[in-house]
């Protein structure tokens, strides 16, 4: 049974609804959000929040400090940024921001790139430590997905682990792959998963060779190497589909996918050989609530490995820790649940983490804490208890080898005794 905790949590008043967040490194968190293109009175922002915490203290479960320091206010009339990708090596960010509604028909430069620069500000007092400041600057705005309607927007953005590829998905069922830093499209035309269905999530495999895309009805795994052909004398590059997983049964009902993530970390202690999905049970007259589950597959044979119920309410977000040993799921009952990745065993449940359901969720680079954001205009950092997962996790494969060696030695011993 998962243990409940108030834990060591820090809550930052973000002043805007928060829709996405990501870490540049152990000290730099970025989040994005705002009130959209209407006249809500809430502007749209990209914000940097430094995480000030010694790693030794964090490992012991002590509290951390989270504050806003570095802010770029977006142009009036533009939509709120709904997704964010932080480059794994360069000081660069990517967001999805719709242009003003009046300009959408002429083309939508919704794919935005930014750079940031960190500088040190001397301390105001001699006994105080110097503070880091971040300047965020817009660099490019370009079209990627065929978004011409103000009701649709860029919903996802993610970099491959080595930072050479960027994937984006839209609320009208399209996905595009870009080379970074050129931003050149890999595919001649965006790949259409299902017209009219939202792309809820996109994520790269640990080696960057595969991309999983999630809609409510299906998971589609694509190769990042395009399929090329010649059409009317021109070379055309198209997405190459590797696997399609349709709706799965969770409990006794069909489920709807909400998020999908490849595992990370070494195979023996991590989960890079796994694919995980957050699945919500379909509405039913017999069921008063829609439960949510985490489901796991092998990432090569696509064999279903198992599932685990995380809440009696629908799930909203899913994250895999950088070391691949933990999963975290946010649910509409305002909770975050932590599971062991290889076994799907429930480890921890944090209740009432926000006033509204979590919209975004990420582990810190050390995998020792979780940061979540919500439309309630807060960002919350939850330090995980030390020893949540044993330092040595033995895989099924290793156990099988140990058992086989033991059986062989036992057989040799028996033969020796009979002789």
Automatic annotation (TrEMBL):
Domain of life: Eukaryota
CC terms in the record's Gene Ontology section: endoplasmic reticulum membrane
Membrane spanning residue stretches: 398-418
SMART domains xrefs: WD40
Alphabetical UniProt keywords: Endoplasmic reticulum, ER-Golgi transport, Membrane, Protein transport, Repeat, Transmembrane, Transmembrane helix, Transport, WD repeat
Its membrane topology: Single-pass type II membrane protein
Subcellular location(s) per record: Endoplasmic reticulum membrane
Principal location: endoplasmic reticulum
Biological process according to GO: endoplasmic reticulum to Golgi vesicle-mediated transport; protein transport; regulation of COPII vesicle coating
Listed InterPro entries: Quinoprotein_ADH-like_sf, Sec12-like, WD40/YVTN_repeat-like_dom_sf, WD40_rpt
GO molecular function (one): guanyl-nucleotide exchange factor activity
Name of the protein in question: WD40 repeat-like protein
